[in-house]
Every structure is written in C-alpha cells, then in structure tokens.
Amino acid sequence: MPETTRILLASRPEGRPAPNNFRTETAALPEPGEGEALLKIRYLSLDPYMRGRMSAAKSYAAPVEVGAVMEGGTVAEVVESRDPSLKPGDMVLSYSGWQSHAIAEAKHVRKLNLERAPVTTALGVLGMPGFTAWAGLLTLGKPKQGETVVVAAATGPVGSAVGQIARIKGARAVGIAGGEKKCRALTEEFGFDAAIDHRSDNFAEELAAACPDGIDVYFENVGGAVFEAVLPLLNSFARIPVCGLVAQYNATGPSEGPDRLPGLMRAVLTKSLTIRGFIQTEFAEKMPEFLKEMGPWIAEGRVRYREDIVEGLERAPEAFIGLLEGKNFGKLIVKVS
Amino acid sequence: MPETTRILLASRPEGRPAPNNFRTETAALPEPGEGEALLKIRYLSLDPYMRGRMSAAKSYAAPVEVGAVMEGGTVAEVVESRDPSLKPGDMVLSYSGWQSHAIAEAKHVRKLNLERAPVTTALGVLGMPGFTAWAGLLTLGKPKQGETVVVAAATGPVGSAVGQIARIKGARAVGIAGGEKKCRALTEEFGFDAAIDHRSDNFAEELAAACPDGIDVYFENVGGAVFEAVLPLLNSFARIPVCGLVAQYNATGPSEGPDRLPGLMRAVLTKSLTIRGFIQTEFAEKMPEFLKEMGPWIAEGRVRYREDIVEGLERAPEAFIGLLEGKNFGKLIVKVS
What we know:
The structure is a homodimer. By secondary structure, chain A is of the alpha/beta class. Chain A contains 9 helices and 15 strands.
C-alpha cells in the first residue's frame, strides 16, 4: 500500500496562524482506481489565498475542514497510472495539497512540457500567480501607453508579473515592496521604473513623488496602508483590480475607526473609479492565450521571475506563516521531494 | 436694461446648509451680444449634486465661488435673441442657475420640443436625472432578465427611472424610500416589485426578505446606512454604479469607527464585485439614443415620473435644504415665473 505524509489543518487560527494550527501525519493511500494515478509530489506552492481557506468565514471557495489536508497546487511525478493519458515519470500540475503522495484523477491534472520551462514555473510565473497578473491587469486594469501602473508585493509572483507586463504594454510600472533589497530587485532585476519601500517613514510622500502623473491602474493584492497612500493619487477613471488583501487576512475583528468607507466612496464618485474584485478562475478560458503570450516573454527575458524554494514539506507551515508577513522573496515553493 | 433677481452663495455651509448660506440680490444684466439671447427663467431644477458645488472640496466640477450665482439647470423662454437659431417665445434648456433672467450663448442652450412632453421633463425624466438613470443602469449596471436591481431614493427622479427601466429589461426592481406614502407610490405608481422603508427599525431584515435571490445590481445614489444593508446581500459579480452619495454630502469630517473599508474590500474580493463611480457627462454622446428610447417609454406609460413643484425662486434655498433630507416627493423643481 502506498503511504503519504501530509499536513492537516489542526485548528482554525485566530489572527496570525501558528505552528500548532497544523498537524503532520502519515497515512495509507488506496491503490489508484480506474482513470486515476498515484503521484509523488515534487513541489508544493504556498500562496496567500490559503489563509482564507484556514478560516470558516464565507469566501469564494469552501474552507478546508479541520482535520483535512491543507489545500494547494503541486507539481508531481506520476508513479503509477491507471489512465492511458499518463505514464510513470510524467510530470504533472495537480491540486494535491500539502503532502508527499496523492491519488489524483487523470482528468484533473495537466501534463507539463519539460522542455518549455522549469517545472516550478507551473506554480508561479506560468501558473496561477502569473495568470492572475496577466488576466487581471489586461482584462480589468487595461493599462494604456504612458499610463502609470502601481502594484504592491511587487517582488512576489503576481506583483512582479504585473509590473513587467505593464511595461510591455507601454505603461510606467511603480512597484512597492518591503526593504531595500527587494526594492533594488524591482528596478535592477524586474525593470520597474520606480520602487518604493512601504516600510519607509515617508512612504506616502515617496509614492506620490514616484507617480508625478498620478495613478491610472492600482493592482490591489495587499490592502491596508498601501491602499490608503494610493487613494489620493488615483486619476479620474482609474481602475483597481482586486485579487488579494494579504495585509488584512490575519485581522480578527472590526478595524478601529475612523471609518474610511465614506471617503472611499467619495473618491469612487468624484473620480469615476472602477474597483473590481476577481479570482483568476473567472478567466479560465483564457489560459491557453496566456501560456502562448507569457511563454515567449519569459524565453526572451522580457518577463523575469524569482523563486524562493524551501526544502522539505515539514517546513511548509513556517514558510507559510512567513509569507503572510512578506518574509519570502519571490514565488514561495516547498521542495517536497 | 434687463434685470435679474438671483440667489448667490453667501458662504460655504459647514454640514447641513442653512438659509444664511444664500443671499438674494437684484442686478442689471448686459444687453445680449452677438450669438446670445436674453432668457426669462421659467423653471429651475434642484438636485443633490449642488451640495457639492457649495463646498470648496475637490470634486469632478469646480465649486461655486462665494458671491457667485448658484448653479443649476433651467427651462427658460427666449425674450430677445441675437442669434438666428433662437427667436422670442422659444423654450430652451439652459444652465442659467438660480435666477429670474439670464444672458446665454445660443450654442449652449437646447431648444425644447413642446409637443413631445411637458417642458419640465427636460429637467427630470427626459433630462439629466433620467439620463443618469438610463446610462448608469444600462451601461454599468447591465441588469439581466430575472436579476434583482435595488435602488434607494427610489421615488426621486433618478431612482424611479432606474427601477422602471430595470423592469423593462426584465429584472426585478426593489426600491427604498422614506415613509409609507413614498413606498406605496413605488409599487402602485412606479410598478416596483417591492418597496422598503429605510426608516423601519427592521430595515436590513426587510430588505433581505425582499431580495430572496440576493442583489445583482445596486444603483448607488445615497450611501450611508442603505449601502450597509445592501452589502451582505450582493451576489457574486454584482455591479454597483455610484452616481451620488446624498446621505453623506452634509458630513463635516471623518466618520466614527469601526472602519468599514476592510469589510468592503473583502466583499469586493470574495464576491468579485464591481464598484464604478460615474457622472452622466461621461456618456454625453449617448444622449440622442436616450431621448429616442425614453420618449416612447414615457408616451406609452412604461416609465412614469412625478414632479414636486415649488412656487417662487425665493423658496429655492428652503426647498434645496429639504431635498438633502428627502423631504421632496419626485423631481424637485422651482417654478420661477
């Protein structure tokens, strides 16, 4: 019988997740049935949205049940297959969660082309985060030549792609990140026009100085203080695609006043703003178009990416807790085996 | 020399406007020059946006200067003309403000067709408010057959048109208004599917009960407590066109906490909401299409309207102050002469 080592949700966190919200166990897996395959997980993707799944609050997806395996995207190797489309040794993208092995239905995995790009990119720049950036920016943000696009968590897999795609479309890209090292990477490695450190005492002033023509697109994946500084700089008809709010995922209750909602609505009205939440699954039918466009951009070096690879499944909880505090530098991936 | 009696902005209000924020004077007008006409104002439109013009705060339009004539749309009769396109006796739509007479450039007025509808409709259902409803609902709200559309200030000129157009498009219309009389008019006169009194102690529960399938379009022209009750009822992919926030126009400073902005952004994200501010001028090129569609709807009785006509320019300040508190019933118009 195959076995899996897996990390379960042990309890729901109050605020910041702690190591004791997770529990590791080893369990037997059934043999793969007709149309299924046994997978050995190679890489596990860690992403901010997982914080939402740990809570019971209503969201776009059902929460992970207490006692269930933590969810997540994975790159895996086929060990045994009972489906003609897969054979041992194939590398696939699957949604197998935080574990070492899994049984998957062949129709729910996607075979990866090993010649095109390193397999880990299927979890980052050529996967969900890259697609989120591409679809959200181009479909909702619609940056035009010469406009200014601002994105936070800008060295992350979504933010770095947003800025680089904005530049390909002729817009000016201003990135926000935490710390000097990340900010340097934004301009030197990812080609952003300007980088602002959100830890700076003069963050709002520095952002304003970096956006002399105002902001036309704010790609919101963070929330919190950054949004506050962005709001007064938004131009008329600015677009704000919202794909994440990592800065508030650990919030435990109503925030203290003053109430900023009336001010936001006033800005929406007087500047004809568009605020639009989205989840990348909404654009699923555009995935082939994305791969066709993004693949060459990466091959030509027009879109660069950075990965932060942590060794060992047992380190996933600690790495995930750090992710929510911006400790990673690039797409956070756990090398499982 | 022609004369005009006019109402000026005497001082900027702090919060709720008071009669002493206005001042009346009589002044001489110049003779009309080449391409101009002397107008005798018949009707003055009073609208919530005028509250914004009384303040110095940045908005989509410049504020009225202290000592200047209060702005506003008017229906006027041509008394004397020095332009071939206008002759004495013509009725025109002009933007002449709170006064009895005015000089206007012929190219800035629109001649009204007296046979089509009463001239006052050019200030309401066939004018700026009706156009705001039509353009905002159809271009941004995009109600589909069977969806639920909610609008507040629903007996007002914008709200009543929103609900009736929503029904023409096959949607369910739920209106919110203050008091039993207005609520009755919503269902009996304007054909809304349901009407909710925002003064009710159980307002939020009653709104929820009136929207068993949730809310797909919330046409925001009020803000405040109504928005609060709407938010939890919004369906995924709901659209929120924002054309006004009358409930907060008299606010004098930051609102007390808790801070509702994080909750709003969470809803935007998890429900893929679209919030979109707009001013009807954005859609100006659609005005002919609007008149072509709305005219027959009115003629056929498919869109009804109600006017609240106050006699005498001197009553404009009092009527306007009441408007901000929902005291009018239908499109508020001052009969100037």
